[in-house]
Predict the 3D structure of the following.
Amino acid sequence: MAWLIDYPREKINWGPTIDEKKCVGCGMCLNCGKQVYDWKNGKACVARHDDCVVGCTTCANLCPGKAISFPDIEEVRALYKKEGIWAKMTSFLKKQGKIK
Ligand code: SF4
Ligand code: SF4
């Protein structure tokens, strides 16, 4: 995943959690381009947690029941800083000529 510059995705705590009591069964989150969700017993469930794009919150923003939540993004920011992921990304983009 280019966003992570080869950093192991499973080491990053990021992905959706559904509060089943709040889910109204609209199916909106099944539109996720990464196919993180499946449909089970008339409601959505998280089937491929680590396929979620780190930092994305689109499904939560659109969920009419406000049923979807994510970990604290500040913890991800701290990890990116500690592991030098931002610096590696900048270097990668420079090599590709996308930034100078
Ligand atoms: S978008 Fe929200 S309310 Fe709709 S199915 Fe998904 S979790 Fe449930
Ligand atoms: S946050 Fe984005 S990538 Fe992750 S499950 Fe929701 S829509 Fe899919």
About this structure: Residues 16, 32, 34, 36, 52-53, 56-59 surround iron/sulfur cluster (ligand 2) (CB under 6 Å). The chain has a mean pLDDT of 95. The helical segments are 58-62, 73-82, 85-95.
